[in-house]
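pipeline: protein-struct stage 2 | run 1193 | 3-phosphoshikimate 1-carboxyvinyltransferase
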Amino acid sequence: MNDHPKPQPATSRKSGPLFGKARLPGDKSISHRAFMFGGLASGETRITGLLEGEDVLRTGEAMKAMGARIERNGAEWVIQGTGNGCLLEPAEPLDFGNAGTGVRLTMGLVGTYDMKTHFLGDPSLSKRPMGRVLDPLREMGTQVLKAEPGDRLPITLQGPQRAAPISYRVPMPSAQVKSAVLLAALNTPGVTTVIEPVMTRDHTEKMLAGFGAALEVETDTEGMRHIRIEGQGRLQGQVIAVPGDPSSAGFPLVAALIVPGSDITIENVLMNPTRTGLILTLQEMGADIELMNRRSAGGEDVADLRVRSSELKGVRVPPERAPSMIDEYPVLAVAASFAEGETLMEGLEELRVKESDRLSAVANGLKANGVDCTEGETTLSVRGAPEGRGLGGGTVETHLDHRIAMSFLILGLATAKPVTVDDRAMIATSFPEFMRLMTDLGAEIE
Ligand code: S3P
């Protein structure tokens, strides 16, 4: 895990039909939480299907630094947790690399401990706003001893002797902020309430309940979710099978749609409705995606997706759908580049504060490859060129963003000319198998 390696460019080119079965790595959101909650709970947690990407491994290292024992035993990760309320002060700064989820959730987790914790990140993470997590923590009694201007990393937190439970309305649609408050509540006496006006991914609620937390969720008449959690209870280690990551599924999925003659099956994809906005949108665009073998695994719906290349048409993607596909806009923009007509994506303000300013990074990457698009303050409109006529030939700046790198390598599989990305290194943060999985399907990427 080196923070400033020499950039490693990669190039993709027009490929023949993609065929075969793809088995995805585990879901990133669930993998982070599995390490965290397992590291915190009493007794043993065993995890299969964990995403062994750099981001998740950083979270594992952080939990180890605070007293959890974590070992890989064949295909299984085995954790002996500290017990709720029993994390230890880490001796060294916790370095989260590129991982927003890891750092924000861990700040919540330790923010109510009477100890000092230092947080670090790579240049991309150090540009991202942390105030959204620090604000509710301050209300609970956490002191921010050190932060860069605008509440940015490196940050040092000191928790109170006794944290105060709060009622907190999450001001932006963010599962990370919701989760940080819920995790801070675990070491806080009394009941903490998180009010969520717009539902975001609900893995924290579901998994904490599974670990035995006293947590209840109620949706009021206006559709707001009220999540109440009683702190200082016991959490018990669990057995967790992590389903395949629907965000990672987006890459082979869009590839198969845009490369003519393709027919692939992506196995074991998480179908939690807070995560399936991309599939819905692509289906509206005319994508041939068949959900097969729908089943329940570890408390989540999963399915295999059979995907055949399709003629796509542009659609309007409404802003209220954004939380269920927030990480998938870059690859949706790639699909839209091959669609007939305009695809208008609205409500994209959160894309500005991801691993990069994804709205600009996507628009610039598309323009560099001849795609007709317009970047608005919170919107992106793409006018496609069916069959990728005249597209490609550009080099894309990835800005240390794994999803920008993967999305544009998918673009190049169906454009007239090859597409180059300036650095593939960050792909390892979320999808270390990406290159091999894609080339096994027949993609020409090197
Ligand atoms: C995540 C929440 C989302 C998402 C990120 C993972 C999570 O971030 O973009 O990749 O696991 O909670 P926000 O909370 O900033 O929307």
